[in-house]
Design a protein that fits this description.
The chain has 13 helices and no strands. The protein is an all-alpha fold. α5 packs antiparallel against α7.
Length: 255
């Protein structure tokens, strides 16, 4: 009997109110966001070597480069012209538009700071396999899931400003090889992320039409947290525990 109750369909439950739905989405962050990960604490606390920080920046590039691809995959499925008009600025945020070089360029300024060759970074040859698998899982999720669920997966942006503030302060304070100018990506996201997350949150609250869709949206935020978390798992295993897989970047390449 208990097993039958546990598997009760979401369709049998009443929809959450807008406030309940909002609260359920926001509750994911304190439980699962990657600011809780031990690698995050090492990074922001000044406990990593220059080579270990370079490994983080190199691997994180894979994620940065995937963001406009996932947004393009999302837009290719959208028939509503206004939604496409509203969403396309996300691609511009990362790829650049007009005089703004974009977030990917700002990230490459960070990897330049470690003496990493741009072609090596953008080729992703030195990235950890787990990083690339996780990133592609996110792109595929957005490509395949219902639109409202795909939008929900972006809502880790709700929790991003806190981690960006910690990153800016912690890295500038604790690493003499980090200059203010190379933190430009994170400073820009302090403005962009709240705007983007507000739009996405209102969209899912307006368009999730059943309890099942609401629950799927909450699960999408958990999924995205997992994508971010597993990248730090891989970094910790390779660059803290010392199990660097064949072909991956090695910290001794940075002096």
């Amino acid at each position: 009997m208990n097993e039958m109750v546990a598997t009760k369909s979401f369709s049998d439950k009443p929809m959450m109110s807008r406030d309940e739905f909002d609260a359920a989405i926001r509750a994911v962050g304190p439980e699962r966001y990657h600011d809780l990960h031990p690698f995050h604490h090492l990074l922001h606390g000044g406990k990593l070597s220059k080579g270990q920080v370079a490994a983080w920046a190199l691997n994180r590039y894979c994620y940065q480069a995937a963001v406009p691809r996932k947004d393009a995959a999302f837009m290719s499925r959208v028939h509503d012209r206004q939604l496409r008009r509203d969403w396309i600025h996300r691609i511009h945020e990362h790829d650049g538009h007009g005089d703004d070089p974009g977030g990917i360029e700002r990230w490459l300024v960070l990897t330049d700071n470690f003496g990493l060759d741009r072609e090596y970074v953008t080729s992703m040859r030195g990235a950890l396999p787990a990083t690339r698998f996780a990133v592609e899982a996110y792109v595929n999720f957005v490509r395949e899931q219902p639109l409202v669920v795909a939008v929900a997966s972006s809502l880790t942006e709700l929790f991003a400003p806190k981690i960006h503030k910690e990153r800016i302060a912690g890295m500038l304070e604790n690493y003499d090889f980090i200059e203010d100018r190379v933190m430009a990506y994170f400073k820009k996201r302090l403005v962009q992320a709240p705007f983007d997350s507000e739009f996405a949150l209102n969209f899912i609250k307006d368009h999730a039409s059943s309890r099942a869709e609401q629950e799927a949206c909450v699960e999408a935020v958990r999924f995205k947290c997992n994508v971010l978390w597993v990248q730090l798992d891989a970094l910790y295993h390779a660059y803290v525990n010392g199990f660097v897989p064949p072909g991956a970047y090695r910290p001794e390449e940075v002096t």
